[in-house]
Amino acid sequence: xxxxxxxxxxxxxxxxxxxxxxxxxxxxxxxxxxxxxxxxxxxxxxxxxxxxxxxxxxxxxxxxxxxxxxxxxxxxxxxxxxxxxxxxxxxxxxxxxxxxxxxxxxxxxxxxxxxxxxxxxxxxxxxxxxxxxxxxxxxxxxxxxxxxxxxxxxxxxxxxxxxxxxxxxx
Length: 170
Prior knowledge:
Layout: E1 25-33, H1 36-45, H2 51-54, H3 56-60, H4 71-87, E2 91-101, E3 111-123, E4 130-140, E5 146-157
Antiparallel strand pairs: 1-3, 2-5, 3-4, 4-5
């Protein structure tokens, strides 16, 4: 009986801190077309009663003439789109966000495209085998207009080494 060898198993992961390229812009695809259901569910789930997101008649009378996508949904989607490519299984912790801006509104039916620039990677001073990584996440609509920009700092794993950890028995 001829048994076939087991096929290789490949587990998707993000990049280790030392695999990131400073200055590189990672484009996260596919984009995400935002629906009315996305906006209403996120807005109500997070207990945000803002009429600008929920009340079509009221929003029609604003300078935008329609409801806007909840900006926290926009931010969360842009960051979330980066996970599979950059931080899946390699992130230790989200350390914080610096500047977050929403220079243009995201509208219902818009497609959100996400990208991340790596601006700095430095070894952690307190956590061996880890690095502090600075990122800038940008979301653009289908017209290329920036709808969100967020500066983020994370703690990420470095690639594993075969060397014993300092202080461990050899």
